[in-house]
């Protein structure tokens, strides 16, 4: 359906589909990263992500007929609550019932409206986005999107307006390297429209790029993200970041909207960091083969050493956020149910929630938890743990987890 082969907006975390290839890439990245133990772990996680990114691209060209509903209900057996969306006055979405199991513990949440992908036909509806915002606003004040296609920016801003909740959106643009900026420009214009309709009040930033450099260097088999070869790709990304900054300037807005970039943790070239106001970094303990109990400390360490410290050394000091972190609750096949640490399971998600959320809040670590809902399209397309990272099931019922009791800043 899409002309943009690699145009999915949400491939942040990924797992191997082709075990052989994964292994060879893994060893390659292990060698590259072997200087420091932590780098090794990072590299493994990255290598796996890389492999799937490639698979994603391959699959994209043949996925025109996949349907996100072919496997029926995506809900798993871990349903512990009867939330199931939110009871709401049909004429007034701002009048909705709060779930006593939820409160604003999270700094931010990673979210893609269901169906908001060109290749899946843009089946996202304002009604379902309103329900999602009603739920999400009970957990956090911030949400990040991955792309702007399918009118998702306007839908989310409209939903925030109608529900009258206090939420800030980090809108996103998913750009690609080989289309002469077409995907970038298309989404930029959608965001521009949304800003002129809804204003700046609920916009926290414009994120240009999602794993752009990860995809670029993987496609070209470039090992060093700061090399001259990688810089050719970085220049494409930087041009889009600069264009977005120019757009913001030209709009003469009532408040400064920062323009950032999002990528896998180890894929921020220095030149890109120097061009961005903020960076969103994917930091996944699961892909680094940690246990659930080691996961939170691993994430804090990796983020500090790989992203926060380097950013602080730059003149522009880009504000770094964790773009994605979480723990999967199940796998669609047995062989991916454990990545070398602990199982994908609800109790292990609970361990990660308990170890990560309140400490991050306390330490001032800014993060978008990955993620709000299970995503059926990912399960259909990639299998394994890919579709099962939600706090909520696909049917909008809360999994059998207890939201940590702290409140996010
Ligand atoms: C809110 O919605 C409920 C249920 O639809 C309704 O009974 C109630 O009157 C509404 N409250 C207000 C203030 O509109
Ligand atoms: C985009 O979404 C907004 C909010 O729901 C709606 O008002 C607008 O008509 C939509 N535009 C298109 C082209 O679908």
Structure report:
With 409 residues, the protein is α/β, with parallel strands linked by helices. It has a single domain, classed as Glycosidases (TIM Barrel), CATH 3.20.20.80. Helices cover 40% and strands 11% of the residues. The protein contains eleven helices and ten strands. Strands 3-4-5-6-7-8-9-10 form an eight-stranded parallel beta sheet. The protein has a two-stranded antiparallel ribbon with strand order 1-2. α3 links the parallel β3 (109-110) and β4. α4 runs parallel beside α5. The chain is globular, with a radius of gyration of 20 Å. One 2-acetamido-2-deoxy-beta-D-glucopyranose binds next to β2.
Q: What's the CATH H-level superfamily name?
A: Glycosidases
Cα Rg: 20 Å
Query: Can you count the helices?
Result: 11
Mean pLDDT: 84
Tell me the distance between the termini. Answer: 42 Å
Q: Given the C-alpha coordinates, what overall shape results?
A: globular
Distinct ligand kinds: 2-acetamido-2-deoxy-beta-D-glucopyranose
- In what range is the share of β-strand residues? 5-15%
């Amino acid at each position: 359906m899409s002309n943009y082969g690699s145009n999915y907006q949400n491939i942040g975390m990924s797992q191997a589909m082709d075990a052989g290839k994964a292994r060879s890439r893994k060893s390659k990245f292990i060698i590259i990263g072997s200087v420091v133990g932590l780098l090794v772990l990072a590299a493994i996680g990255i290598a796996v992500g890389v492999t799937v990114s490639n698979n994603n691209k391959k699959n994209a060209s043949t996925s025109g007929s996949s349907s996100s509903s072919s496997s029926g209900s995506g809900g798993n057996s871990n349903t512990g609550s009867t939330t199931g969306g939110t009871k709401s006055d049909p004429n007034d979405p701002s009048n909705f019932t709060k779930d006593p199991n939820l409160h604003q513990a999270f700094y931010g949440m990673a979210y893609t409206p269901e169906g908001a992908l060109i290749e899946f036909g843009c089946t996202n509806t304002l009604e379902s986005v309103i329900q999602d915002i009603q739920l999400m606003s009970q957990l956090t004040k911030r949400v990040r999107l991955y792309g702007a296609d399918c009118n998702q920016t306007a839908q989310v801003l409209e939903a925030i307006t109608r529900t009258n909740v206090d939420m800030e959106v980090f809108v996103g643009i998913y750009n690609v390297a080989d289309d002469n900026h077409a995907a970038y420009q298309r989404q930029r214009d959608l965001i521009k429209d949304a800003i002129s309709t809804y204003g700046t009040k609920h916009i926290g930033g414009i994120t240009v790029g999602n794993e752009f450099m990860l995809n670029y260097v993987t496609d070209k088999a470039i090992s060093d993200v700061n090399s001259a070869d990688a810089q050719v790709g970085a220049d494409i990304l930087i041009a889009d970041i600069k264009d977005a900054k120019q757009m913001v300037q030209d709009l003469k807005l009532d408040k400064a909207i920062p323009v950032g970039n999002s990528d896998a943790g180890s894929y921020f070239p220095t030149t890109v960091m120097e061009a961005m106001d903020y960076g969103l970094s994917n930091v996944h303990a699961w892909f680094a083969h940690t246990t659930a109990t080691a996961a939170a400390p691993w994430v804090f360490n990796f983020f500090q050493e790989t992203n926060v410290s380097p950013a602080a050394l730059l003149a522009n000091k880009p504000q770094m956020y964790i773009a994605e972190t979480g723990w999967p609750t199940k796998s669609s096949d047995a062989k991916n149910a454990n990545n070398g640490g602990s199982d994908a399971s609800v109790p292990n998600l609970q361990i990660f929630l308990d170890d990560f959320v309140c400490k991050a809040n306390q330490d001032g670590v800014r993060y978008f938890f990955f993620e709000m809902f299970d995503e059926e399209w990912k399960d259909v397309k990639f299998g394994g743990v890919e579709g099962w990272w939600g706090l909520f099931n696909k049917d909008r019922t809360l999994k059998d987890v207890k939201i940590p009791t702290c409140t996010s800043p």
